[in-house]
Amino acid sequence: MLAKATGDKYYLNIMNAFSMTSRNACLTKNPDCNYRDPSYIGEEPQRKKILWSRGNGWVFAGFRGCWIICRSVNPTDKRYLNSSAAWRRALIKRRERMVWRVNLDDSDQFPNPETSGSGFFCFGLAWGINHGVLSRQEYLPAAEKAWLA
To answer: Buried b vs exposed e over 78-100: b needs ≥16 C-beta within 10 Å?
Structure first.
C-alpha cells in the first residue's frame, strides 16, 4: 500500500522479498505445499510430511492481497499467481470430502476437519474465481464444498 501511495517501488520490493523468502523457506521439495515452519522440514512421522493446513491457508489467502498490490503498481506482475499454480492443484488433491485436515499430508495425525485452513482455502479460491484469475470449472467444486462445510 505504501508503494501504491508513494509510487516508490522500494516498499513493493520489500513485500515481495519477505513474501517469497518466507514461502520458499517452508516449501516442500516438489514444490507444492508449505511445511508447518522451517523447523519441521525433514520431520516426517510415519514417512508423511507435516504440512500445516492453517499456515498454508494464511499464505494462500494472503497471496491475494500481495497480488492486488503488485498489480496496482505493475499490471503485468503475475508472480503470485504463477508461484501458486502448482500449490493450488496440490491443495485441491489434499482435500478430503469437503474440508482439509490439520496436516495436509497425513489425515490420520489429526483426523478432525480443520476449519481455519479450509476457510482460508475457500476464501482464496472463491476470490480468485470471482475476479477471473482462477478457472471456475477447475476450482468452483472445491470452493463450493468448502463453503458448505
So the answer is: eebbebbeebbebbbebbeeebb
In terms of pTM, does the model score above 0.85? no
User: Which cell numbers in the block locate residue 36?
Assistant: 508447518
Q: What is the pLDDT along the chain (149 residues), one digit of tens a residue?
A: 787 788 888 888 888 788 777 777 666 666 577 777 777 777 666 777 778 888 888 888 887 777 777 777 777 777 777 777 777 888 888 887 778 888 888 888 888 888 899 999 999 899 989 988 889 999 999 999 889 88
Burial of 42 (0-12, 13-18, 19+ CB in 10 A): exposed
The domains of the chain, with CATH numbers, are: 2-148 (1.50.10.10)
